[in-house]
Amino acid sequence: MKKVNSNSRRDFMKFLGLGSLAAVVPTVSSAATIPHVVVVGGGFAGATCAKYLKMWGGTSVDVTVIEANATYVSPILSNLVLNGQKTTSDLSFTYGSYSSKYGINMLHSTVNAVDKTNQILTLANGNRVKYDKLLLAPGIDFIKTNDYDITKVPHAWKAGKQTNLLKAQIDAMQDGDTFTMTIPSAPYRCPPGPYERACVVADYLKNTKGHTNSKVVVLDANSKIIVEEETFAAKFTEYGVEYKASTTVTNVDDTSKTVTYTEAGSSKTLASTVLNVIPNQKAAPVIFTAGVNSGNWAPINPLSYESVVASGIYVIGDSQATGQPKAGHIGNSEAKICADAILRTLNGQALYTSPKTNSACYSPTSATEASWLTGVFKYDVDTQTMVSANGASGASSTANYPKMFNWSGNLFADTFA
Ligand SMILES: Cc1cc2nc3c(=O)[nH]c(=O)nc-3n(C[C@H](O)[C@H](O)[C@H](O)COP(=O)(O)OP(=O)(O)OC[C@H]3O[C@@H](n4cnc5c(N)ncnc54)[C@H](O)[C@@H]3O)c2cc1C
Question: Between the CA atoms of 227, 229, 230 and 233, what dihedral angle is there, to the nearest 10 degrees?
């Protein structure tokens, strides 16, 4: 527990500013103890959890969010930057009013080391932060086939500079040029996202830029379109997207803009004007630094999101290893289960035993149409896992397009406002 007095916030900030390990225990001047929960990552999962910890825990808990960037750019809706329907500014969130409204301490730096024995984090700026409970919500990292320059071959799967880079490359295309994208092996961030991107780009080239001779090629590592198959297959036919399933990328050359891949046992190389390689994915680096991974992801107890590898450390969002999709909406949902579980544990109460989570993805398929997909997951006592309880999808339509912004507006507000 972090010992506090009436000047707790000032002492806390001073404590954070001290670089030596000997200085990490603040002065004790009162008997009051307030547990300190530190959240690493201020995205959909982490920002939601910190907010609900304070909303539900009030002054009984001290919450600090450590986020590498001062501005968060939402990957959700970022495919609409590519066709000019949104800008990255439209999708940007800062933390000033969020942190003051809920009384959350906000630090902007990267967590580089996790000392589990002493419960101390070391930040890139040299500061050290002590925690009682640690929540890791750091998102994803990429598994590249080889060392190539992502400013020449952008993934645009984390939003921001990468998104604007890909948009500039698409805008520079001439009629007859080719856009090639690769889809990673599942599990990856946002199952419908790559198929949605292929549709948005194909529609933009054909219907906005008037490129009747340009081509969109999709190389999918999976054996088929993994979600909303009917919807995306119909759109691919409508736009003339060339779709190849079961393709494994083996090399990317950023100079010749070529991708080498295997298909049905033979190796092929394809040159493209714009190459958008979305690599295979794994949990973000801090999951490995903290040693809470098993393979590429972090296994957790779905009743609490506490790591099954290290007690007192929780993992939510894209880094966790349940079968739930890696998506912002469900990260927001997991965050509330986790906030409740942390507060119950701090209060010596039993965990809630029937958690449910839900997920929604709206996929723009053009500048005027969107489809949608939802899923509900519930805890299964026998297998002690989250299992699918329900799901539905809606075909691409113009009626869905404005509903997409109602849905995203609610999610953004529930996370960052
Ligand atoms: C094109 C596209 C469309 C999408 N559409 C949808 C959709 O319709 N619906 C949906 O639900 N989801 C969608 N998603 C997926 C969604 O964006 C992600 O699943 C979501 O962002 C994951 O949230 P997260 O909090 O786990 O990770 P992130 O949003 O990546 O947040 C992690 C944060 O942690 C920070 N961080 C990482 N490591 C450290 C460290 N060591 N120290 C400090 N900070 C650190 C990062 O800077 C980052 O801000 C889409 C994604 C894409 C790419």
Answer: 130
Q: 15 C-alpha to center of ligand 1: Å?
A: 30
- 325 and 204 together in one domain: no
334 lines ligand 1 (CB under 6 A): no
**Shared domain check, 306 and 270:** no
Q: In angstroms, rounded to a whole number, what is the distance separating the alpha carbons of residues 136 and 252?
A: 32
Question: Which of 281, 301, 324 marks a domain boundary?
Answer: 281
Rg, C-alpha atoms of the chain: 22
Report d(CA 360, CA 329) in Å as an integer. 6
Q: Which domain holds residue 178?
A: 148-281
Q: Ligand 1 atom closest to Cα of 316?
A: 26
Is the CB of 239 within 6 Å of ligand 1? no
| 33 and 125 co-located in one domain | yes
Which H or E run includes 333?
helix 328-346
Q: What is the pLDDT of residue 9?
A: 44
Torsion angle in degrees (nearest 10) through CA of 149, 152, 157, 163: 140
Closest approach atom of ligand 1 to CA 110: 42
Looking at the fold, whether 93 and 123 belong to one and the same domain comes out as yes
Distance 75 CA to ligand 1 centre (A): 7
Q: Both 114 and 161 in a single domain?
A: no
- What pLDDT score does 30 carry? 30
Residues 204-256: pLDDT tens digits?
A: 999 999 999 999 999 999 999 999 999 999 999 999 999 999 999 999 999 99
Q: Which amino acid is at 205?
A: L
